[in-house]
Write a sequence for this structure.
């Protein structure tokens, strides 16, 4: 039986720097990540790829704001759908081209994925996830009063809109994803944490102006499809204690208990490694077998046990 992995690729990994934000630049970066995932597939893994979409959603929102005098604005759930399609297209194209080079008879397909959240999730009462472009205080106040936005001052860089970040409860398209895996496809799904939806009183789905954490949704997906491995592909080769300090210590292997302890001790920053470790903790607590955190170029070496941080029950 082929082993199944969920590989979560960061949305920021498609934007290498501020000068390389155009679609072609993003494709070049996507292809770089997909080369390493193709190598994983060539070595025998079945793979589902998930991805972030923060910068890309920001671009759509900014375009929407700038053209509002001529066109309707794009709601946040539609931004999620748009980016799932666009990034999925990049990944599909990059994977197909890479499979061709490697003479692999494989195809990739993107599933625009909805993720159910609880409409009573406390996150809806305290929005915390910054989205869209920076504003001055006057503009932010106007948006708050006229559009009902929640706005905050963001780390001295300006004001931004914040939305809720509820926890994922169910992958709506799970059965379709499983069928595609069984049929031999490489599946790209749950982009940007999935499109957050709630069920109304009659059980109908309603899209929400919210953002689900990409790693949390990928963790849930990995459990839902009983993946043998959950990989978080990020900017660093390994996880570290005391990151960027003189006492920095790289970690080769962690148990679930150690991961919980280090997380509780505050070793992993809220805006960077913290959510990734939390996603892994939940994956293992729900019965997951093992997880790996490393950067894209080291996925092959990490799978061979040469690098990366492995987290096990």
């Amino acid at each position: 039986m082929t082993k199944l992995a969920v590989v979560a690729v960061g949305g920021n990994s498609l934007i290498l720097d501020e000068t390389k934000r155009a679609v072609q630049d993003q494709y070049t970066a996507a292809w770089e990540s997909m080369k390493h995932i193709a190598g994983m597939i060539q070595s025998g893994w079945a793979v589902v790829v998930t991805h972030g979409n923060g910068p890309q959603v920001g671009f759509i929102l900014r375009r929407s704001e700038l053209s509002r005098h001529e066109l309707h604005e794009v709601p946040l759930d539609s931004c999620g759908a748009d980016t799932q399609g666009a990034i999925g297209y990049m990944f599909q194209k990059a994977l197909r081209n890479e499979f061709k080079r490697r003479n692999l008879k494989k195809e990739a397909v993107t599933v625009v994925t909805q993720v159910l959240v609880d409409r009573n999730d406390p996150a809806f009462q305290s929005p915390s996830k910054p989205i869209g472009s920076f504003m001055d205080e006057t503009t932010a106040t106007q948006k708050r009063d006229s559009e009902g936005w929640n706005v905050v001052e963001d780390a001295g860089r300006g004001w931004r809109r914040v939305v809720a970040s509820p926890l994922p409860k169910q992958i709506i398209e799970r059965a379709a994803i499983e069928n595609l895996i069984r049929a031999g496809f490489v599946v790209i799904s749950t982009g940007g944490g999935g499109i957050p939806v709630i069920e109304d009183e009659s059980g109908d789905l309603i899209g929400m102006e919210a953002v689900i954490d990409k790693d949390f949704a990928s963790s849930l997906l990995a459990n839902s499809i009983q993946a043998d491995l959950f990989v978080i592909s990020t900017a660093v080769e390994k996880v570290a204690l005391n990151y960027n300090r003189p006492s920095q210590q790289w970690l080769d292997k962690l148990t679930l208990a150690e991961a919980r302890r280090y997380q509780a001790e505050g070793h992993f920053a809220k805006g960077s490694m913290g959510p990734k470790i939390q996603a892994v903790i939940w994956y293992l607590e729900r019965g997951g077998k093992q997880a790996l955190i490393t950067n894209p170029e080291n996925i092959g070496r990490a799978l061979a046990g040469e690098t990366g941080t492995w987290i096990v029950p």
Notes: Residues 127-163 form one domain. The radius of gyration is 19 Å. The chain is about 35% helix and 25% strand.
